[in-house]
Amino acid sequence: MGVSPTSTASRTIAITGGARGIGRAIAAELATRGCSVVIGDIDLDTAADTAAALGLAGAFALDVTDPASFERFLGNAENAVGPLDVLINNAGVMPVGPFVEESDNITRRILDINVYGVIAGTKLALPQMLSRRRGHIVNISSLAGENPTPGMATYCASKQAVLSFTEAMRREHRGRGVHFSAVLPTFTRTEMIAGTRAPFGLLAEPEDVARAVAGLVARPRRRVTVTRRAGWLAAMDKVTPRLISEFMVRRLGIDHTFLDGVDQSARRGYNERLIR
């Protein structure tokens, strides 16, 4: 059964990393369902363009690695739409390539944005939600957090951390009115996979992830995978003998997709934004 467009109406929602990609798609989906949506992004100009194009309630500067910036963003969001019903921790980065070639600066950026950003946002938004005994924190993780992939070692570690953190929060605050959900997309057709030959049979569209998030906002659940097929394959992988599982992964080419199969020139724009 699909989610009724009115089932999320009037929710107040803040989305991190909302200028592009999955974050933009989530904002568009929720806005069409009647939510009051604000987005935050380190690229304020693009975020402002996105907010104008989608008719959002606002766009504000946000560096998720800086608690003061995150606090200002949440304050601006509440000034724009009122007390937040939902915080969607979406901001994330995915450099790819051999681990030994990954600079310390890039390693730190992955962990600061993908892990610390989620923790910082949750820590800042949660007290008011608990005081109202109402709220929902949705964290965008990845199937890579459960299915480690060569060429993405630090990224995989960061997304596993998000999964563990989300589950710990859910159990710690059970019965207190605040929901915690993890979203696990497969490879998604955004700039994150530019220059790679990600297996098309496992690709999701940003809109697929957006619809899954909207479903969680309407009916909170512990976790959801996107796509269902990719989630099913990931679940099967856990119960498949290791030798067979690794053989299938090699046949799909995934062991090399993010190593020697990467066109780094096609990722130049994405990588330059990552380190600025």
- The CATH architecture can be named as 3-Layer(aba) Sandwich
Instruction: Supply the CATH class.
Output: Alpha Beta
Gyration radius, in Å = 18 Å
Helix content: 40-55%
Return the structural class. alpha/beta
**What is the chain-wise order of helices and strands?**
EHEHEHEHEHEHEHHHH
**How many helical elements?**
10
Number of domains: 1
Give, in spatial order, the strands making up the sheet with the most strands. Answer: 3-2-1-4-5-6-7
| Major β-sheet annotation | 7 strands, parallel
Tell me, rounded to a whole number, the average pLDDT: 91
Q: Using DSSP, what is the number of strands?
A: 7
- Distance between the terminal alpha carbons, to the nearest Å? 44 Å
> Approximately what portion of the residues adopt beta-strand conformation?
5-15%
Give the overall form: globular
Set out the fold topology.
Elements: E1 12-16, H1 21-32, E2 36-41, H2 44-54, E3 58-61, H3 67-81, E4 86-89, H4 104-132, E5 135-140, H5 153-172, E6 178-185, H6 206-218, E7 223-226, H7 228-239, H8 242-252, H9 254-257, H10 268-275
Parallel strand pairs: 1-2, 1-4, 2-3, 4-5, 5-6, 6-7
Helix pairs in contact: 1-6, 3-4, 4-5
Q: How would you characterize this protein structure?
A:
This protein is α/β, with parallel strands linked by helices and 276 residues long. The chain has a single domain (12-275), classed as Rossmann fold (3-Layer(aba) Sandwich). Helix content is 49%, strand content 13%. It contains ten helices and seven strands. It has a seven-stranded parallel β-sheet, with helices on both faces. Helix 2 links the parallel strand 2 (36-41) and strand 3. The radius of gyration is 18 Å and the shape is globular. The N and C termini lie far apart (44 Å). Residues 1-6 have low confidence and may be disordered.
